[in-house]
Amino acid sequence: MLYDIVEVKFIKGHTLFLRFENDVEGEVDISKILPFEGIFKKLKDPQYLATVRLNKELGTIVWDNGADISPCFLYSVITEQVA
């Protein structure tokens, strides 16, 4: 099942706090799940990573350069269904 992200907070480094619409929440270290290549290259800079925001239409997190991450993938990482 697909759950939208309803809250995001930058913690530090490459770590974000996420809360989903079903109240599942947790922290995710972006550096452990994404290669900093292509559209994700700018996310290597923690100051840029901190500009993250919610896109309610997509139900996920986005950045001004057009980068976004699948909420389904992020949910599986937080619930430890993916290494």
How would you characterize this protein structure?
By secondary structure, the chain is an alpha+beta fold. Helix content is 14%, strand content 30%. The chain is built from two helices and five strands, in the order E-E-E-H-E-E-H. The strands form two sheets. Strands 1-2-3 form a three-stranded antiparallel β-sheet, with helices on one face. Strand 4 and strand 5 form a beta hairpin. It starts with a strand and ends in a 5-residue tail after the last helix. The model has no long low-confidence stretch (mean pLDDT 94).
Structural class: alpha+beta
- Give the low-pLDDT segments: none
- Overall spatial form: globular
Give average pLDDT, whole number: 94
> Main sheet?
3 strands, antiparallel
How do the SSEs run, as a string of H and E?
A: EEEHEEH
Tally of strands: 5
Cα separation of the termini: 19 Å
* Residues in helix, %: 10-25%
Q: What would you report as the Rg, rounded to the nearest angstrom?
A: 12 Å
With strands numbered from the N-terminus, the spatial order across the biggest sheet is: 1-2-3
Q: In what range is the share of β-strand residues?
A: 25-35%
Q: Count the DSSP helices.
A: 2
